[in-house]
Design goal:
The chain has twelve helices and 19 strands. With 454 residues, it is of the alpha+beta class. The protein has two domains: 270 residues, no CATH class; 113 residues, Alpha-Beta Plaits (2-Layer Sandwich). The longest helix has 18 residues.
Length: 454
Amino acid sequence: MKEKIKIASGQGFWGDLIEAPYWQVINGDVDYLVMDYLAEVTMSILQKQKNKNPKLGYAKDIPELMRRILPVCKEKNIKVITNGGGVNPIACAEAVLEVSKNIGIKDLKIGVVLGDNILDNVETIISSGCELNNMESNESINIIKDKLLSANVYFGAEPIVDALKLGADIVITGRTTDTGLTLAPMIYEFNWDMDNYDLMSLGTIAGHILECGAQSTGGNFLGNWESVENFAQIGFPIAEAYPNGDVIITKHKNLGGKVSFDTVAEQLLYEIGNPKDYITPDCVADFSSVELEDLGDNRVLMKNVKGFPPTKFYKVSCSYFYGYSAVGSLTYSWPKALTKAKRADQILRERLKNLGLTFEEIRTEFVGLNSCHGPLVKIPNEDEINEIMLRVAVRSKDYNSVERFGREIAPLILTGPPSVTGFAGGRPKPAEVVAYWPALIPKVLVKPEVKILS
């Protein structure tokens, strides 16, 4: 058993800082690089890509990233774990293997976790008695079943541990919990009992701190953010884990950012709901039990976490087609910029009504005034307002209404208030609206599967 392991966060979402994983493996010693690519809406995007091309459906950044980092990872014996396999982890693994062979690495073993994608089995699951009702509204999935775009079960750390036990250098999964990516190497390296729910919760909460990348090392920090050094090359967090359950959150010394009690505590509060009842497939973690100690020098100790047994259910993340939306904007300048923008919004709404178009929602924002704080805004003297961007968004299940809305923005330039600019990129085009459907499924109805590719 190792005395400690270092688990480095490399991505917080698909589209995060591309250089971060490379910086993590070249700027110091780490044992694992974990990369979280998936949000709920990401799965529907990836499913659409796979429907068009069966070789796609995963985070396309991964093969090129592996071309850069694989030689370093092999030299330093760094294992990589990612859920960037999306809805097609096999294709992702095959693409990585192709890259590895092209750069002369021929002994790579990739563990692939399958079984989370239940889109093709929804009817069978419903027939078995699991109705997949919306866990928030209790509505029946039958009302949107024919519009489903994706349906994925959130697996936890266990199948990743199984892949590591089979000798995987890289583990690529589909819809695995963000926290499971970090918990798994702790279980594997320290031979933790998965029925020890305090340890499972400790690893889960460490994963929660790592899952959003630099958000725990000074990025998006609401405290004294001006004290954060070198945002341009910000260091992502590293969990330095010990067999007894202590974890020190830190970063590479030669990278920017900041690890302090405040940055870590702020991330602890991110998207947790009831802090005593953070439910994952591996445990129910009690965030209120966490003890943090700022050790200085960008090191924060986390310890004494309490946890409880997991539930008998997995969460299912479904997405479905809901309709269409479009967004248009124009900028009005001083004098009376706000008055002009409000009048243009009124004109636009009157024209849409006169055309008989149907919308579920028309939302107007005055960017530079109230787009962040809405009705809480204190309206300044209009002479103090240099410019206002009018931004109008519409949503409808009727494509034609949304498409026609897009044709009504540009005419305001010559048929509305003066001193207008900012129309670029062509008229707004309808975009598909994807809605979210959360559900629960008994764990006995779905099983993860691990394959090794080499």
